[in-house]
Amino acid sequence: MKKVMFMACAVVLSTAACAKPLENAKLSINKNNIKVWTYQDNQNPVFMYKAETTLNVPIEQAVALILNIDHAVSWVPYLSQVKMLSRDDKKGEFQLYMVLDFPFPLKDRDLVVQGKMTKDAQGIITIQNKAIKKNYLQNSQNVRLTHYEGDWTFQKLGPQKVKVSTSGFANPEGSIPLSVSNMFVQQQPYQMLQKMKTELAKATVVSSLPESLK
């Protein structure tokens, strides 16, 4: 079975900075029950983001979609390839290799993600991810990203309702216009949560979760 922990889908068009609370956050998008906030570090002109929505599905079903890397390319924006490198279901730890499709003439980006899944005493499930320096499949055709962090958070609101939040940042490397970066940082998480809703509407079976989340 190839189902495994999935990354906090990378928005790779923002500039790396230390993860901070939402300071001076701006509500950039608020429609279709999806909210996207963008904010900036004092020394960083490019946006970071947080997005959230509520879904009328069991929490297990929402988490299972994120954990299914076989299906990820069909709904995660800009993701062209993802491969599981290692996993430990008991510890909730994993490594993934990802390729992100950038528009011509930019080179595609790739990265290796180290992830950790946890469930707290209140039942909130969190998937935390960061890029690590690893030479797996590194070649001149792609630009390797080494500064990325992101997360997913799932909070059960009822038997058939869950609050889903995602946030992140990355250093895209290379030369990308600031206006283009900021546009994608606002739009990508909105598109991602919209597609997530569509995929969950198709689902009929709730998959079991890894041992670390039970």
UniProtKB/TrEMBL annotation:
The keyword Translocase does not apply. The keyword Ion transport does not apply. Gene3D superfamilies: 3.30.530.20. Keywords: Signal. Residues 1-19 form the signal peptide. InterPro entries: START-like_dom_sf, START_dom_prot, START_lipid_transfer. This is START domain-containing protein. It comes from Acinetobacter celticus.
